[in-house]
Write a structure and sequence with these properties.
Elements lengths: L13 H4 L2 H11 L12 H13 L3 H9 L7 E7 L3 E8 L2 E9 L9 E10 L4 E5 L6 E4 L12 E3 L36 H4 L9 H7 L5 E8 L8 E3 L4 E2 L3 E4 L6 E3 L5 H13 L7 E4 L8 H24 L4 E4 L4 H9 L6 E4 L2 H14 L7 E3 L6 H4 L2 H8 L3 E3 L5 E6 L4 E6 L10 H23 L3 E6 L6 H16 L5 E3 L7 E6 L6 H5 L15 H23 L5 E7 L1 H8 L3 H11 L1 E7 L8 E5 L8
Parallel strand pairs: 1-15, 12-13, 15-16, 19-20, 23-24
Antiparallel strand pairs: 1-2, 2-3, 4-5, 4-8, 4-14, 5-6, 7-12, 8-9, 10-11, 11-13, 17-18, 18-19, 20-22, 21-22, 23-25
Helix pairs in contact: 13-14, 16-17, 16-18
């Protein structure tokens, strides 16, 4: 080997390389950021701060809350507005329970209604691709073309409001799905899930769908799932325009009430209100949980606003010639007023004056009393730091999340699923406290997993590997804890019991990419793998390639003259060859009659190297 002076160690300590502060800064900037473990913030500390803030509320608000029947927790909505992002945090007694990020330079696609043209049919996957004027064609499955009934979380309501659903009082947690909603009674009486399965028109065949919606025909669709990665948006023809207390379905004639409203008398009252609403023919509504306890005038006003909004959408549909968006969901400010600013929210804090004025105006249209809950934050310290939100958000992007008892959960998002592992952390389990500690960690993990899924917006298939529990009662306790926590989630989910191996499988509805995916890109160096080949692996590959190249060149030239090869590679790989693998390189030179020279280039990727003929400059690898 020649051309490069031999060195025993090409690396020098950082202190030798750094010359003064500038050298030290250069080294720090070249190195990747230090990995920080998520800091565990005691819930007691957050609750204490929240209670202190609650005491600073106006006297009348505190009296009204004290006189209420339920002494609830202190709930706050904090909105941070910046030029490129708008962030919303929901705090329950100071603990972050929901976190949303909206990029102000991107359109809100989920819930948007488009007029499109059918581009092509794909009978193999039973779907249609629709041109909506976006970079990716929309995906429309055949079962989303035909009218759909109400979901299991909505009770269908007939015209007679005085008949009750005999299945309302039946427990649903441990009852098989096929038995839910069944009850005794006369034929034709009782509604609910039995009514949701009432006789429907026969489902059209694939041939009938293709005939009714030929290529090039117009179609009105709504995006139910935004574009994720290379997949286009998922859509449906069953449109739904949400309001504050109800959802308007312009192409359906079956109204309903959310099953999350559990009180029997309240459901009966809402059915009576629903029967008196003047719903346009061919349309229907679903009463939302926010309507619980509201007077009829709130529903009448909400219905009038939704009908007016749909008339505007219908006019845009007629005016749009080819394809385009005809309705778009409001931004975070509008959704906050519509979906989050309910009676149980104690206050809303916004750090942007323009957004504060706008939300005041929007709230004034639906509830003047709620305007008093909205506050403009004008302190010098950032609002998310002021309320300890930034420290809690750090957990949202951390791989490991600590648990109060000393355990931890490890979250790994992949393309196919999200894997969550529950560990005891640094706690040493002994025989006396082992069983109770394991159950305690698993219960804490179930609550934290549900919270992290909301905060990170994790969807799709989720696998949770709990610490092994031998007793079925312990597994059921953790399973039911998980079910209860997921019931508080707005997104639909389906949780399966824990297996004998301690594995819990579940799915969660996903409309958008997770916060983790939107915040980070795949590493351009390792292409998202998170690992690179070791210097030993690259050394073995270079030696193997050298032997193959020498044999191939000699067979081609039919000559045994000495060859001169130059290998260009990363300095770290050269260090390995110069030290640990020097004998192997000398053996290659002697056995094959080849002369090797090396050139280190820090611009080379760690896994890349190049072999050229030093005499002819021919690229051999």
């Amino acid at each position: 080997m020649s051309n490069t002076p031999k060195k025993k160690n090409t690396r020098r300590p950082r202190s030798e390389k750094s010359k003064g502060p500038q050298g030290r800064y250069d080294e720090e900037l070249k190195a990747p950021p230090k990995q920080k473990d998520a800091e565990a913030i005691p819930a007691e500390e957050l609750s204490r701060d929240a209670r202190r803030r609650e005491k600073n509320q106006p006297l009348l608000k505190r009296i009204a809350k004290a006189m209420s029947k339920e002494e609830g927790t202190f709930k706050e909505l904090i909105i941070n507005s910046e030029p490129l992002e708008r962030r919303m945090a929901f705090l329950d007694d100071g603990v972050l329970q929901k976190f949303e990020v909206e990029k102000t330079d991107q359109e809100q696609m989920v819930g948007a209604v488009f007029k499109g043209r059918i581009q092509n049919h794909e009978p193999g996957i039973k779907a249609v691709f629709v041109d909506i004027g976006q970079p990716k064609n929309a995906f429309l499955h055949y079962w989303d073309i035909v009218p759909q009934g109400l979901g299991e979380d909505v009770e269908a309501v007939d015209d007679d409001p005085d008949e009750d659903d005999p299945a309302e009082d039946k427990p649903e947690d441990d009852e098989p799905e096929e038995r839910k909603g069944r009850g005794k009674g006369k034929k034709g009486k009782g509604r609910g899930r039995r009514n949701n399965r009432r006789r429907k028109p026969p489902t059209p065949t694939h041939e009938e769908i293709v005939e009714k919606h030929p290529i090039g025909s117009e179609i009105i669709i709504q995006i139910t799932k935004a574009q994720i990665g290379t997949k286009g948006p998922r859509t449906t023809t069953n449109l739904a325009i949400p309001g504050r207390f109800m959802v308007l379905m312009p192409y359906s004639d079956q109204s309903g009430i959310s099953r999350k409203i559990e009180e029997r008398e309240e459901r009966k009252r809402l059915k009576q209100i629903l029967s008196k609403l003047k719903i346009p023919e061919g349309m229907s509504v679903i009463l939302r949980t926010a309507g619980e306890g509201k007077k009829p005038r709130f529903f009448e006003r909400d219905l009038a606003m939704l009908v007016q909004k749909w008339e505007e959408v219908a006019a845009k549909i007629d005016a749009t010639r080819h394809h385009g968006m005809v309705y778009q969901e409001p931004d975070m400010i509008g959704r906050t007023v519509r979906d989050f600013l309910t009676e149980d929210i104690d206050r809303v804090i916004i750090d942007n004056e323009a957004d504060f004025d706008r939300i005041q105006k929007e709230v004034g249209k639906v509830s003047r009393q709620t305007k008093g809950k909205i506050t403009h934050f004008s302190d010098d310290i950032p609002v998310f730091e002021r309320f300890n939100i930034e420290r809690q958000i750090e957990q949202t992007f951390a791989r490991k999340v600590p648990l109060p008892s000393g355990g931890e959960i490890v979250i790994e998002e992949t393309e196919a699923l999200t894997a969550i592992d529950v560990n005891t952390g640094g706690h040493r389990v002994d025989e006396s406290s082992g069983k109770n500690f394991i159950v305690q960690v698993n219960l804490e993990a179930a609550r934290e997993v549900a919270r992290q899924m909301r905060l990170r917006n994790i969807g799709g298939l989720i696998i949770v590997d709990f610490i092994d529990m031998k007793r079925r009662g312990d597994r059921n306790a953790v399973y039911h804890c998980m079910r209860r926590e997921m019931d508080n989630d707005r997104a639909r989910s389906h949780v399966l019991p824990i297996s004998l191996l301690g594995i819990l499988q579940m799915t969660r509805q996903r409309h958008h990419e997770s916060n983790y995916s939107t915040m980070f890109d795949n590493c351009p160096y390792c292409r998202g793998r998170g690992i690179v080949k070791s210097t030993r692996s690259v050394s073995v590959e270079i030696q193997r390639r050298l032997t193959a190249i020498v044999r191939r060149v000699r067979n081609r030239l039919h000559s045994h003259e000495e060859l001169t090869l130059r290998i260009m590679l990363h300095p770290e790989n050269l260090e390995r060859l110069r030290n640990e693998d020097e004998k192997q390189l000398v053996a290659i030179e002697q056995d094959h009659g080849v002369k090797l020279s090396f050139r280190a280039d820090p611009n080379f990727h760690l896994e890349n190297f190049k072999i050229v003929n030093a005499d002819t400059e021919e690229d051999l690898h």
